[in-house]
Specification:
By secondary structure, this protein is an alpha/beta fold. The chain is built from ten helices and eleven strands. The strands form two sheets. The chain has an eight-stranded parallel beta barrel, surrounded by four helices. It has a two-stranded antiparallel sheet with strand order 6-7. Strand 3, helix 4 and strand 4 form a beta-alpha-beta unit. The longest helix has 19 residues. The protein starts with 11 loop residues before the first strand and ends with a helix. The mean pLDDT is 97.
Length: 255
């Protein structure tokens, strides 16, 4: 499903990695708190080891829908079928590779091989009804062999491989997040919506509490066909309060 209108409340989700320390202590209580904060959709990452059946039960009990899950490239290379089985059991139809190992980005040719792997997994997972995507950090925008990891990656990925653009890390990498969304229109399907604090040292804060232009980011996302706007922080100060603050801010910008 592709939206072509301003962000809606039902397109806002939460990356559970933000609450990983709370989840490690009390996963059921954390999921209930996520729902109480007003979220109805989540992305999986950073959770304690939990069987997919039990995780599905806890998510269902909290009234939370799974829109994506972060899955390592190593896990996919090891057994993509097992990854697909696990995702199917929790009702997740999207796998996002969240990191490119250093060995896969030493040269432009390394990045091309990484892109070829993702293209292959797009076929393998696609046969199971699961889409695959890639999530950026800031290293992708550094110089590499006269270009950048990002440009090589986008130039070699088939359209079946989606992009989850982290607007904070794009900004830390020296890019304009809205411009990057427009440049990859038609393949950016998810955004990580964390803000950048003012000051020279990179630090993330809840959306709406920093310097990133979220109205412009959301408009670029609408035009590009973004489906999910996902609240996230790597290092929240007060995890539950921070995600609730970000949700309220994004809701204020939604239709």
């Amino acid at each position: 499903m592709t939206y072509r209108r301003r962000m809606r409340n039902d397109q806002i989700a939460l990356q559970l990695y933000t609450l990983r320390r709370l989840a490690a202590v009390d996963l059921p209580g954390t999921l209930q708190a996520v729902a109480a904060a007003g979220f109805r959709a989540v992305e999986l990452a950073g959770l304690p080891e939990t069987g997919p059946g039990e995780l599905a039960r806890l998510l269902h009990g909290a009234g939370l829908r799974v829109v994506a899950a972060h899955e390592s490239i190593e896990g996919l290379r090891g057994d993509a079928s097992a990854v697909a089985d696990r995702l199917a059991e929790v009702g997740c139809s999207r796998a996002i590779v969240p990191w490119m190992p250093e060995n896969d980005r030493r040269t432009a040719d390394d990045v091309r091989r990484f892109a070829a792997d993702l293209a292959g997994f797009a076929v393998t997972l696609g046969e199971r009804g699961i889409r695959i995507g890639y999530h950026n950090h800031s290293f992708e925008f550094a110089a590499l062999d006269g270009t950048t990891v990002w440009d090589v990656l986008l130039g070699n990925l088939p359209p079946e491989v989606e992009i989850e653009l982290d607007v904070y890390w794009a900004a830390v990498g020296g890019r304009d997040p809205a411009a990057e969304i427009r440049a990859a229109a038609g393949r950016v399907r998810l955004l990580h919506m964390k803000d950048r604090a003012a000051g020279p040292e990179p630090h993330d804060v809840p959306a709406g509490e920093g310097i990133l232009p979220f109205p412009q980011i959301i408009e670029a996302g609408r035009a590009a066909g973004v489906e999910w706007y996902i609240v996230e922080q790597d290092e929240p100060h007060e995890p539950l309060a921070d995600v609730a603050s970000a949700l309220r801010y994004l809701e204020s910008l939604a239709t």
